[in-house]
Amino acid sequence: MKKLLIVLSVLVLIGCSPKNEEQQLLLISFDGFRADYLSKTATPNFDKLVKNGVTSEGLIPIFPTKTFPNHYAIATGLYPENNGLIGNNMYDPEMEARYSMGNRDAVENPEWYLGEPIWNTVEKAGKRAGTMFWIGSEAPIQDMRPTHWKSYDGSIANEARIDTVLKWLTREKEPVDLGTLYFSFVDSQGHRYGPDSEEVIESIKQADELVGYLMEKLEQLDNDRSVNLMIVSDHGMIEVSPSKKVILDNYIDVNKIEVISYSPALMFNVKEGAVKSDIYSSLKAGEQNYRIYSKEDIPERFHLKNNIRTPDFLMIAEEGYTINSDEYFKSRGEEYPSGGAHGFDNANIKMDALFIAHGPAFKNKFTMGRIENIHLYEVMAKILNVHPAPNDGDFNTVKEMLK
Domain with 286 in it: what CATH number? Predict the structure, then answer.
């Protein structure tokens, strides 16, 4: 009789347990959306997600706080020295090749991308992914492609991007388990007008309207699968001005260096015939409004120096400063630089990005402290029930966001 009662109790518990549904995830990036932007204006649609989901005080970007490295860090859970993207612009001495955002051949060349992006992890598990723009998704990394993917086309209307990914998520046959979306307009306005401008406030409102459009579309769908949203950004934004310049010619002969990646995280190699120690000594002696590091002395917290693509030297501008040659500054006019920039030290909270998560996998009304973006790969793998590839993230540091 006692054994029978135990069996019946187990059966009751099984019957009362929630249905183990396969969950979907939509990863959305608003480029350049600083963590504190939600406090700049009314954002009713973002607020609804925050009220019924998870947010953090800030999403800490990897260094350099640039677009390409951070989007790929989120996708792989790897720091730049391990995922290969050490900047928006790079030089690989073994490949004898250059990478830049505008070089389509390089952007679509899988040799530049190390690690395993989440869409590959999903596909390897026998599931499906659809990427409507995400750094790395245009290249056949590991000789693979997402089930659906699009080459970046900034002319495609934002609402049309949402509509496309929702079709992938809700199609009757073989819907995707993971979808991605990317929007650049907040970053563009931040660069042009600065983070405290009316134009940025209008872009925040535009982003909020897009979130409202997405939520309305999701509510209209007859979809029996569980959709989770993870809204992120890659970095914040800091005001720059013509009064805050670091002119390289005041310290060194600029003809002796080859700039690889630009301010405020300026990386350069020393040309053949020039003496590295002399270049370093001159910059170190004049160190003001910037910091100079030789490659081997780059702080460990940047996770940058252990990659062949990392140049000889790194200069980091202090908040609001711009580093360049006298010739370049003069070519841009007296009002340069203006607006906003990113790429500064990721310890600066003005570089912190947005993080909001909403859906059946996430807790309600839950606020976390600042979290590093490399941990999100593990969260995505957990939600999608796929085995994560080796990465630098730590699920234990962020698991509290999940139910």
Answer: 3.30.1360.180
Query: Which residue do the tokens 């350099």 mark?
Result: 64
Task: From 289, 312, 338, give the residue that closes a domain.
Answer: 338
Is the CB of residue 262 less than 8 Å from the CB of residue 314? no
Structural domains in the chain (count): 2
Residue partners of 89: CB distance under 8 A and separation at least 6: 98, 99, 100, 101, 260, 261, 262
Closest by CA position to 148, among listed 157, 156, 134, 159? 134
Q: Are residues 255 and 390 in the same domain?
A: no
Instruction: Quickly count: other Cβ atoms within 10 Å of residue 360's Cβ.
Output: 13
pTM: 0.94
CB 85 within 8 A of CB 113: yes
For residues 25 and 227, what is the distance between their CA atoms, to the nearest angstrom?
Answer: 6
Higher-confidence position of 226 and 209:
209
What is the DSSP code (8-state) at residue 374? G
Domain that holds residue 138: 22-237+347-401
Tokens encoding 210: 């897009």
pLDDT at position 229: 98
What phi and psi values does residue 171 have, to the nearest 5 degrees?
-65, 150
What does the longest C-alpha to C-alpha distance in the chain come to? Answer: 91
Q: Are residues 352 and 321 in the same domain?
A: no
Q: Which residues contact 318 (CB under 8 A, 6 or more apart)?
A: 289, 290, 291
Write the CA distances from 152 to 44, 50, 136, 212, integer angstroms.
29, 29, 11, 24
Same structural domain, 306 and 366: no
Positions marked active-site? 67
Q: Is the dihedral of CA 321, 327, 328, 332 positive or negative?
A: positive
Q: C-alpha distances in angstroms, 81 versus 66, 85, 309?
A: 14, 7, 8
Same domain, residue pair 189 and 257: no
What pLDDT is attached to residue 22?
A: 84
Q: What is the pLDDT of residues 313-346, one digit of tens each?
A: 999 999 999 999 999 999 999 999 999 999 999 9
Q: Could you tell me which residues are beta bridge partners of residue 259? A: 268
134-193: pLDDT as tens digits = 999 999 999 999 999 999 999 999 999 999 999 999 998 999 999 999 999 999 999 999
Question: How far apart, in whole angstroms, are the C-alpha atoms of residue 62 and residue 233?
Answer: 12
Judging by DSSP bridges, how do beta strands 290-294 and 313-317 pair with one another?
antiparallel
Do both 269 and 211 map to the same domain? no
In a domain, 101, yes or no: yes
